[in-house]
Design brief:
Largest sheet: none
Radius of gyration: 24 Å
Oligomer: single chain
CATH superfamily of the largest domain: MetI-like
Strand content: under 5%
Structural class: mainly alpha
CATH architecture of the largest domain: Orthogonal Bundle
Low-confidence stretches: 338-343
Helix content: over 70%
Length: about 350
């Protein structure tokens, strides 16, 4: 166990160092002066704030500059945005919870829908229901997320007017930003019309959540189907039938519990896919998350924001993925690698 822990921690640390060096190198690859791309401040301002220029050691060697860059990152000095002039650490901390919230709700919806359908497909293996669900899962997985989001907007928002087109909440609601997760902030606030605000938030959440959840739901159907089929073909299931238990008793007493054990680690691994899809959907629904913020930074050629945003997304994906895999290995040492969903 100690060797596994050391191996994963060292691999995570090396990956993060490589990502930070790539982020540092972007300041020299982007147009403009590297110090401007690192700090977000113009050279004229840097002359008046000598401490900032000194912190990055612009006159020293590249490795020495990289070391000071890491020190500044550790202390939360990520530079300033060209377009807004605000500290990048504060801006990212403001928009990141919106992306995590959207991804979490999409994952919950995918689990609620995908697991029962996966059980249904497995229990009717090689029958009409199984073939139909597999066909639907293949179609859902093949549809591009951005095209699906536009199609959903066309049908549910423009054609029928059932849900809002964009945004996170209507403008006439003022929700204090406490945690960054808007539903939690509404519940923690002393707003007089909480119920109306929550309904409005859910209506704004539905379309982007549905757009992201479709792809993940198809993956969960296939993961669950495979796990249930493998579980139902094991020896202890055959022994349960031999003892005279009915199919209902075997499924509810032994099948569900044992089939879900290998599923949940794989579900956790889908969160990174959800996060990347959420960043695409955010731009379509004008969702104020990290993906939409990054696209705006690209439009405005805000190089410090692009550098900091890419580093944030990369670090978040690496840390979350490594944490999940490490947890799985510690809980189940015999598992050598995660199995991918297959038909």
């Amino acid at each position: 166990m100690r060797n596994v822990l050391f191996r994963y921690l060292s691999l995570t640390l090396i990956t993060l160092i490589v990502l930070s060096f790539v982020s540092f190198s972007l300041a020299y690859l982007f147009p403009g002066h590297p110090i401007e791309n690192l700090t977000g401040l113009k050279l004229d301002d840097l002359v008046r704030t000598e401490s900032t220029q000194f912190a990055y050691q612009s006159g020293e060697s590249l490795l020495f500059q990289y070391w000071h860059y890491m020190v500044e990152l550790y202390h939360g000095n990520w530079g300033y945005s060209f377009s807004s002039g605000l500290p990048l650490y504060e801006e990212i901390a403001y928009v990141l919870p919106a992306s995590i919230e959207l991804s979490a709700y999409a994952l919950m919806l995918s689990i609620i829908v995908g697991i029962p359908l996966g059980f249904l497909a497995a229990l009717h293996h090689h029958k009409i229901a199984d073939y139909f669900l597999l066909s639907v899962s293949v179609i859902g997985y093949s549809i591009p997320v951005f095209w699906l989001a536009l199609l959903i907007i066309l049908i549910f928002s423009l054609q029928f007017g059932l849900f809002p087109l964009s945004g996170r909440i209507s403008l006439y609601f003022e929700v204090p930003n406490v945690t960054g997760f808007i539903l939690i902030d509404v519940l923690l606030s002393d707003m007089p019309d909480k119920r109306t605000a929550i309904i409005d938030i859910v209506r704004h959440l539905f379309l982007p959540t549905l757009s992201i959840a479709v792809v993940t739901t198809t993956l969960i159907i296939r993961i669950t189907r495979r796990s249930v089929i493998e579980t139902m073909n094991m020896e202890f299931i055959k022994a349960a039938y031999a003892r005279g238990l009915s199919s209902r008793q075997v499924i509810f007493r032994h099948g569900i519990r044992n089939a879900l054990i290998p599923i949940f680690p794989l579900l956790a691994m889908q969160f990174t896919t959800l996060l990347t899809n959420a960043m695409i959907v955010e731009t379509i629904f004008s969702w104020p998350g990290l993906g939409n913020w990054l696209i705006q930074a690209i439009y405005h050629q805000d190089y410090p924001a692009i550098r900091a945003g890419m580093l944030t997304v990369s670090v978040l994906v690496v840390v979350f993925t490594m944490s999940i895999e490490l947890t799985i290995r510690l809980m189940d040492p015999k598992r050598k690698r995660l199995k991918h969903a297959t038909i």
